[in-house]
Design a protein that fits this description.
Two copies of one chain form a homodimer. Chain A is of the alpha+beta class. The first copy, chain A, has helices at about 1-20, 60-70, 140-150, and strands spanning about 45-50, 55-60, 80-90, 95-110, 125-130, 135. In chain A, a hairpin with a 4-residue loop joins strand 1 (about 45-50) and strand 2 (about 55-60).
Chain lengths: ~170, ~170
């Protein structure tokens, strides 16, 4: 009996483990999927948002990075993809005057496709929340909320990110 | 005469251009060189230093990124290389509660080689200042200054960077 229980437990643990390892990320309600390998993309900029106490890092795909480094960012080229990761700010345990990323909040993407996303300035928007990467929005209309918030940067192709200066 | 002047001017411009394109970065006084392609490395973390008003992004080579993502960071493995880029903080022109990177200040590296850098906790340190990437330090002893500043994180293998949480 004990042996059976052990086998059953091990079996469950294996299932849990493989479910976790292969956990697919659900697409956003507008069909956008989280790009493969975005964590390995080069950095384009970073931000500290004082209004919601978050640190953010913006990375980009090859098209985005090339545009950023050659200053061809208004408009950004078709095929540009940004991923913006956000963390709650926290004080560095060994340097009290440094704020560092704490809890992971979300990852957001912007995808430039002027034809497909005509209604939202040529950009597809999506957001995944928390470590479980839960897609944001009840239905596809959530993108209007994103687009509304990006109006202050209409003259910068609706993009808040200003690529950081590099040598 | 006019033609000669034009040719001479064009010649000078060409030289200036190619000098700029190929501008080699001088090694640090301890012989460390700025790693090729560091701008394309994945992000490991970011910081906002309130004591000197800088935003920083820390990227790492393959060894560093693998260690960061698997939690094998104390000690960091031999061959780990970090590059930390720093910018003066500035207010986002369209979002006054966001601080974003302004003027590029410097890039610093840490290279883990316990044998070679025994005197400084197993780490080789170097810094290049400004857009001209001027090596920091009058002679190789500058690394003692870096090492002294890293004492508060002696129990973290002398590394301030805590890898950000990722889904």
């Amino acid at each position: 009996m004990k042996k059976l229980f052990l086998i059953a437990t091990l079996g469950m643990l294996c299932c849990l483990h493989s479910a976790n390892a292969a956990a697919p990320v659900a697409p956003a309600p507008n069909g956008l999927t989280l790009p493969e390998g975005y964590k390995d993309w080069p950095v384009i900029s970073s931000t500290h948002r004082l209004d919601n106490q978050t640190l953010r890092v913006i990375v980009g795909n090859k098209t985005a990075v090339e545009a950023a480094r050659t200053g061809k960012t208004n408009p950004w080229p078709e095929g540009t993809v940004f991923a913006k990761m956000a963390w709650k700010e926290t004080v560095h345990p060994a340097w009290e005057k440094a704020l560092v990323p704490g809890e992971f909040i979300q990852v957001e993407i912007m995808v430039k496709d002027s034809g497909k996303y005509k209604e939202t300035g040529g950009w597809g928007f999506a957001r995944w929340k928390g470590l479980t990467l839960k897609p944001y929005g009840a239905d596809a209309s959530f993108a209007q909320e994103c687009f509304a918030c990006h109006q202050p940067v209409k003259d910068k192709d609706y993009v808040f990110t200003r690529p950081h200066q590099l040598p």
